[in-house]
Design brief:
Chain A: This is Origin recognition complex subunit. The complex is a heterodimer of chains A (699) and B (564). Chain A has 699 residues and is α/β, with parallel strands linked by helices. Chain A has 4 domains: 238 residues, no CATH class; 184 residues, Rossmann fold (3-Layer(aba) Sandwich); 88 residues, no CATH class; 89 residues, Arc Repressor Mutant, subunit A (Orthogonal Bundle), CATH 1.10.10. Helix content of chain A is 59%, strand content 7%. Chain A has 35 helices and 10 strands. The radius of gyration of chain A is 35 Å and the shape is globular. About 19% of the residues of chain B have low confidence. Chain B has 564 residues and is of the alpha/beta class. The longest helix of chain B is centred in the middle third of the chain and has 23 residues. In chain B, helix 7 links the parallel strand 3 and strand 4. Chain B starts with a helix and ends in a 6-residue tail after the last helix. In chain B, helix 2 crosses helix 3 and helix 17 crosses helix 22. The chains are: A alpha/beta (699), B alpha/beta (564).
């Protein structure tokens, strides 16, 4: 590039500035830092401004800014209350899961020593699969247990802590000592000792610590063993094995791929230093299913995630590496966005708090809800125009009604999830489907499709073939709404009476049982005749078949009633969040798509005159966009001169002879370096005057 | 004590090392003036350090031993030498006098050692302390495994050898585990004492000295007479079959003997009748009976696994707690199948598969294999069939036996070929494509179970764009809405980061950096990917093939050699 061309760059910049006038300029929310002042000096001070920030409302005013402070506050409070409850549940599950592995690992750590393994370092290989975060939880709990009993502690190493041997050793020693002594304890341990000053990476320090504290077990955990440099790991292990007589070490390796792969990457001599056992941590999906079940299907639920969100959630957790923590964060975001953006969520508040809401605004919003409108239309068709008029005109009546609707809707949702739970347990119990997860059933139920699904029919078919032993088991799983009904009580009573009378040792089978002919030899012929020729069954069996029939009918009716389409409920917008979008956009952003779109059709983002947007490439577009579109037309190696010619031609064709070549060239160079910075092209080694293409559109 | 007496007393405990201990004792003996440097060398587990230490202890010479593999840097080693010397001379409390316990260079070490040895001998002379009187002018410094010192400067060894010349009262013993090169200390006339590996006779003598494992005999109810006649034969057989061929050490030998002995004599103790109607079990019969035992152990002796089968069958510790014993069956079942394949989620699996394909397909053949512009016209089909035949022929010539293992014939291969084959695939280009890549047969880590299609080509680096493109080509459930595809490409990067953490897919530069020991610091922190930076898959092929099947992609369908 010529020097005089470089000087022209300023001219290009001014022109460029005039071009991009419609651009949205991103301003960071933090005004103090962005305004160009000197950043405040960083010091360690006690956070005095923290409570102030917490007091200020993080939520903004909705309903065109007419919402008052109280309502905003109320929404925020409800959100906190709801999420706190859910978070406690999630934490309980996370603490509970893998507790079995924990006890196994703990007993391994306690029971093994180099002596039991002929001088090899005891090593626990924990395969975690894609459940990457679980090992961290396991280790912190292990550490808690070991430090509580004073046996020792856990030193957890990440691959980032081990760039080279010296730093690794320093980190090991520091983590080991600060674990029980704290940071200051470590400092004093290093400095306040008699004798000469010890180097920070001298394991003498750790040995000394072990001796002084009478540590019996020191667990060194490699959280992501694959990411460690194998060379450093080999060095470290050989070093540690020579210290084994002074430091009672046990190793834990977190393995995400497979044990074979892990062993294969280490040198033989290093593998020979280790001996131990496998432990397996369950997959994340198991944990995620449990979390979802607790959040949605618990009987104190007041707010639910709809079908679309559920499917987004599970798609993400099953398709990619996702920790249960990340899952719960996504759920949290969904909760947050509901209470942040829905002014009607105040109706979820308890009764006493609900009196503070702005009646007129809320009622107006209620009347605009799609589900409310649909309800009104339906009621009109039924001929109850009076009630619709009242709903539309009387605020008090509307509020009262809507409170009822919300309550009944919530009850219906609870009942539905109870049924889902029942179906899932029944499927598991009677081994109808190999693998059932609550997520599949919940997605179907939330879409209102469970009745048409295969598992629903399987369940009903299975009921018909229940025998008298399985029947009470099944009855125990049923939701209370069903068991409380008088019909069910009647069936139970009849069933009890039948069992009283029945003398046989074999459980009673219904007439639908097809296996019966195989099982029993004496009754076989009668049964076969019955099913084909309608010959009378033994009296008890016939009675039982009748009971089963009644039971089946009752259950079917009950399920029919409970498994509603949640989106048909009136005012479901309040207690059911079913919008795919904020969640999907936020958790899987598409930067590449956005950049490509901005470059290939810049007027999607920029304000432009109508006639210019129809032309594909025009001089009105930003230079980088023009160049990008030319670049898209080329092959993988581009001659820069050709590119320049084409670029110049764009300007020439629109501006005729008035086009300034030097300005255009400045723009060209600027655009070229823009594309380079975006990683679209780089200079080619094959030909001096060519650039090579490194990004293709639409991938 | 005379050297021969020392050697005798030591050989009681550590047999077959009389020669070496006598040499050491005569060189280091109290009455003689020792050479300034002694080199002791021999491969590992030949009893070097133990003999040196015990000779020194028996001779009652003041000495210090520093294990240099425990020292991280050269400076660390020098500091340790100083401290060990101070400790051995009983002057630990006076460390501030001698360079404040700090020592950063060999020349400093020489001065400091000189000072402290001089003062120590002066003081002991003044005190006329009886036991040290004989040895008052001698101090032996043993540097164990000095050839394995980390970050040692090239002059360290010669400099340490000079210490004894600078300080008359010091004798430095260098213990090496590699055979020394001639004049590696840059000085002539240094006495070398070699510890050769134990011969067959020596090894069996050492093992037999302990006699048959007593615990086994007592519990098994084997009479001592029978045991003592059988055991020598047994030990010899173990040596010949397992220890000698694998060049194992004495401790391994001993542990194998102890482990196998009870099982070897099991037919006697359980009261089985020997075959052939003879009343007695003799060694030959036992050996024939236990052939499988030896074979099994032989396999285990060559490949060490972190988790051995015995550990699983009978965990080495007595598990008293009920909690553990109830959990045993579960943990056993989990451990017996330790998931040979990692279970990656769907999306990463697909990315890994595409990375593998990108690594193992020559870039120039991409248009044939992955192009989506498939045509159903007759000429295009003929062209495809033509290329397929040609590829098949070539791959068959390369590995004849792999042809049967090659992938499924059910797929018609309609998606594989492009009608726009601008790059004409002639036989010569194909051959050159294969020739450049078939020099080495397998991918990194492709050790066991080399199968046909996966090993025709070496793993070669590829740019990320190619990975994304191949991903779209092999995706078994392509999105119906093409707008969504953009999100896929962005999501790939996030998953790729995790795959990189697992070292399944690595930046190409990082893979080469792995070779240098301890040089990982260069690339382990670097997670940015520059424009056009190349990546490479880092696992073997059969493994990925299995994995890909779970998401519905047949790797052989796409690979050059796997065509049929």
């Amino acid at each position: 590039m010529d020097a005089d061309l470089l000087e022209l760059d300023t001219g290009g910049a001014s022109k460029d500035g005039s071009q991009s006038q419609g651009v949205y300029i991103y301003r960071p929310a933090d005004k103090i830092k962005s305004s160009g002042e000197r950043p405040t000096k960083r010091r360690k001070v006690a956070r005095t401004d923290l409570p102030k920030a917490a007091n200020s409302r993080p939520f903004v005013s909705l309903l065109n800014g007419d919402e008052d402070a109280k309502s905003i506050e109320l929404r925020y409070r409800i959100y906190h209350k709801f999420w706190a409850a859910q978070e406690a549940k999630i934490k309980g599950i996370l603490d509970d899961v893998d507790s079995e592995v924990l006890t196994n690992v703990l007993s391994f750590v306690r029971s093994t020593s180099p002596q039991t393994y002929d001088g090899c370092i005891p090593a626990a290989l924990v395969t975690v699969g894609s459940n990457v975060s679980s090992l961290g939880r396991l280790l912190s709990r292990l550490n808690g247990q070991l430090t509580a009993t004073g046996e020792g502690g856990v030193i957890a190493l990440e691959s980032g802590d081990a760039p080279n041997l010296k730093t690794t050793l320093k980190n090991i020693i520091r983590f080991g000592i600060t674990n029980t002594e704290g940071n200051e304890g470590y400092q004093s341990f290093v400095t306040d000792r008699e004798g000469p000053r010890v180097l920070g990476y001298d394991l003498d320090l750790l040995a000394d610590y072990v001796k002084r504290k009478e540590v019996k077990k020191l667990v060194l955990a490699f959280r992501d063993s694959e990411a460690f440099d194998p060379g450093i790991l080999a060095d470290l292990l050989s070093l540690l094995s020579s210290w084994l007589d002074r430091i009672p070490l046990t190793l834990i390796f977190g393995i995400s791929t497979s044990v074979e792969l892990f062993e294969g990457r280490l040198p033989r001599s290093t593998v020979a230093l280790l001996r131990g056992r496998y432990f397996e941590i369950h997959e994340a999906s198991n944990c995620v299913d449990r979390i979802y079940g607790r959040i949605q299907a618990e009987q104190d639920g007041k707010f639910w995630l709809g079908r679309n969100i559920t499917s987004v959630l599970f798609e993400k957790s099953s398709d990619s590496f996702q920790t249960p923590e990340a899952f719960s964060r996504t759920v949290k975001y969904a909760y947050m966005s509901h209470f942040f953006a829905n002014p009607l969520s105040v109706l979820l508040a308890d009764d006493d708090a609900a009196t503070t809401i702005q009646r007129d605004k809320v009622c107006e919003a209620l009347r605009n809800l799609p589900s409310f409108r649909r309800y009104c239309e339906d009621t009109m068709e039924e001929g109850c125009a009076e009630q619709v008029r009242k709903l539309l005109e009387d605020d008090a009546f509307l509020l009262e009604q809507s409170a009822q609707w919300v309550k009944s809707g919530q009850q219906k949702m609870r009942d539905m999830f109870k049924c889902v739970d029942m179906v899932q347990r029944a499927l598991k119990k009677f081994n109808i489907v190999k693998k059932t997860s609550i997520s599949d059933l919940a997605i179907r139920a939330l879409a209102g499709e469970l009745q048409t699904s295969a598992s629903y029919e399987d369940i009903l078919r299975a009921i018909k073939t229940l025998d008298s032993d399985q029947m009470p088991l099944f009855a125990m799983m049923l939701p209370d709404t069903l068991t409380a009904s008088s019909d069910f009580a009647q069936i139970q009573a009849d069933f009890g009476a039948l069992l009283q009378v029945y003398q046989g040792t074999e459980p009673l089978k219904s007439g639908y049982d097809k296996q019966h002919s195989v099982v029993a030899t004496t009754v076989v012929q009668q049964r076969v005749k019955l099913s084909k020729a309608k010959v009378k069954l033994p009296k008890e069996n016939a009675e039982f078949t009748k009971i089963i029939d009644r039971f089946h009918a009752l259950l079917e009716a009950c399920l029919e009633e409970t498994l509603i389409r949640p989106n048909d409920l009136v005012l479901h917008e309040i207690f059911l969040l079913d919008m795919r979008n904020p969640l999907k956009e936020v958790f899987s952003p598409r930067p590449r798509f956005a950049v490509e779109r901005a470059l290939s059709s810049p007027f999607d983002y920029l304000i432009s005159s109508p006639e210019s947007s129809t032309v594909k490439v025009s001089a009105h577009q930003p230079a980088a966009a023009i160049l990008y579109q030319l670049y898209l037309e080329s092959g993988s190696l581009v001659n820069v001169h050709d590119l320049w010619q084409a670029f110049y031609a764009v300007f020439e064709s629109e501006q005729g002879n008035g086009c300034d070549e030097r300005t255009a060239m400045a723009l060209f160079y600027r655009a070229l370096s823009d594309l380079k910075a975006l990683g679209m092209m780089k200079s080619s080694r094959k030909k001096v005057d060519h650039v090579s293409k490194t990004a293709w559109m639409g991938l | 004590m005379l050297p021969s007496e020392v050697a005798q007393s030591i050989s009681k405990q550590w047999p077959c090392r009389e020669l070496q201990s006598r040499q050491l004792a005569s060189l280091l003996g109290a009455k003689v003036s020792s050479p300034s440097t002694i080199v002791v060398h021999g491969i590992s587990a030949t009893c070097k350090t133990t003999i040196v230490r015990n000779v020194l202890a028996a001779l009652d010479v003041p000495h210090a031993l520093v294990r240099s593999p425990e020292c991280i840097t050269g400076r660390h080693l020098l500091t340790k030498i100083l401290w060990a010397t101070l400790e051995a001379l009983g002057k630990r409390d006076e460390w501030e006098k001698y360079g404040k316990g700090r020592c950063e260079h060999v020349s400093t070490l020489a001065v400091l050692l000189n000072e402290c040895l001089a003062s120590a001998f002066v003081s002991s002379q003044q005190e006329q302390h009886p036991p040290t009187r004989n040895n008052r002018n001698k101090f032996v410094l043993v540097l164990d495994g000095i050839d394995k010192q980390r970050e040692a400067s090239p002059t360290l060894l010669p400099a340490l050898a000079r210490l004894g010349e600078v300080i008359p009262s010091l004798c430095v013993v260098l213990v090496l585990s590699t055979p020394p090169r001639p004049l590696f200390l840059q000085s002539a006339g240094v006495p070398h004492i070699s510890f050769p590996p134990y011969t067959r006779n020596e090894a069996t003598t050492i093992i037999l000295q302990g006699g048959p494992p007593p615990a086994a005999a007592a519990t098994l109810g084997l009479s001592d007479a029978v045991a003592s006649t059988l055991y020598p034969h047994f030990v010899a057989a173990v040596y010949d079959s397992l220890v000698g061929p694998t060049a194992s050490s004495i401790p391994t030998f001993r542990s194998i003997c102890e482990k196998l002995w009870p099982r070897f004599v099991a037919p006697i103790t359980t009261g089985e009748t020997p075959p052939g109607g003879v009343g007695e079990w003799d060694f030959t019969r036992l050996l024939v009976k236990n052939r499988a035992l030896f074979r099994h152990q032989g396999e285990g002796a060559l490949v060490h696994h972190i988790v051995t089968e015995e550990d699983e069958a009978e965990p080495p510790v007595a598990k008293g707690t009920t909690a553990v014993s109830t959990k045993r069956p579960r943990s056993l079942s989990a451990a017996s199948a330790p998931s040979p394949l990692p279970s990656l989620p769907y999306f990463p699996t697909l990315i890994l598969t595409s990375a593998y394909l990108a690594s193992h397909t020559p870039q120039r053949l991409d248009t044939i294999f992955f192009s989506k512009f498939s045509s159903s016209s007759l000429s295009a089909r003929n062209k495809r069939a033509h290329h397929r035949r040609r590829l098949k022929l070539l791959s068959r010539a390369q590995l004849e036996d792999a042809a049967s293992a090659a992938a499924d014939p059910s797929t018609p291969g309609s998606r594989k070929k492009g009608k726009r084959t601008k790059t004409k695939i002639t036989k010569s280009t194909l051959e050159s494509a294969f020739a450049t890549s078939s020099a080495t047969t397998s991918a990194v880590g492709g050790g066991g179970g080399i199968t046909g299609p996966s090993t025709i080509l070496t793993a070669r680096p590829f740019p990320l764009e190619r990975l994304v493109a191949i991903y779209h080509a092999i995706d078994p459930n392509p999105p119906a809405n093409p707008i969504r595809m953009a999100a896929v490409s962005d999501a790939i990067y996030a998953e790729l980061a995790t795959l990189r953490r697992l070292r399944l897919v690595v930046p190409a530069a990082g893979r080469e950096g792995r070779v240098g020991m301890g040089s990982g610091g260069l690339n382990s922190g670097n997670t940015t990917s520059d424009t056009g930076e190349k990546w490479c898959v880092n696992v073997s092929g059969d493994w990925i093939g299995e994995l890909a099947k779970t998401v519905g992609v047949e790797v052989g369908e796409w690979l050059a050699g796997g065509l049929d």
